[in-house]
Design a protein that fits this description.
169 residues, alpha+beta, Nuclear Transport Factor 2, Chain: A, 6 strands, elongated, NTF2-like_dom_sf, SnoaL-like domain-containing protein, SnoaL-like
Length: 169
């Protein structure tokens, strides 16, 4: 099957939607949406810039449990992603649709924990690198793109960086 301009545009939109849906769902604590529509079965989430340690590949359910534990400690959170760049091949009648792509986006995050010592608000900005895979088990007409790798890079943090428990100095 050739990779047409329509395929390119649909893939680009679906990949952008998957990235945006991740953070929309995290902020609303819609963990089922992340498991069903965002993450691949296995995921590597690299937050070493924020928490230290080493990245590891885990089941999506474990990564969702990590997010859930962090978000339950907060009163509210808002992740705003912008400038999503998707590294898709251009349409080509002789090319097959891609099965894996890289993407990036800028991100600004506001976190609130009213009981945090040192102040209730933390704001930060940076960007994410992603690798997404096409899940061939997804029903036709549904978004097949799933995140299998994500890495956070932090450019700045203002306010109380300890609003989120476990952040390294």
């Amino acid at each position: 099957m050739p990779y047409t301009e329509t395929n390119f545009l649909v893939d680009h939109t679906n990949i952008t939607d998957t990235i945006n849906r991740l953070w929309w769902s995290v902020d609303r604590q819609d963990w089922d949406a992340i498991l069903k529509r965002v993450f691949a079965e296995d995921i590597t989430a690299d937050y070493t810039a924020l928490f230290g340690g080493q990245p590891e590949e885990v089941k999506a359910t474990k990564q969702v449990a990590v997010f859930k534990g962090l978000l339950e400690a907060l009163d509210s959170a808002q992740h705003a992603n912008m400038t999503v760049l998707v590294d898709l091949p251009q349409a080509d009648e002789d090319a097959s649709p891609p099965t894996e792509v890289k993407a990036n986006c800028n991100s600004v995050t506001s976190l609130v924990r009213k009981s945090a010592e040192g102040g209730p608000i933390s704001n930060g900005g940076g960007y994410y690198d992603y690798v997404l895979i096409r899940d061939t088990s997804v029903s036709k007409g549904q978004n097949p793109w799933r995140i299998k790798y994500m890495k956070a890079y932090f450019s700045w943090i203002t306010g109380n960086q300890h609003v989120l428990p476990g952040v390294k100095e």
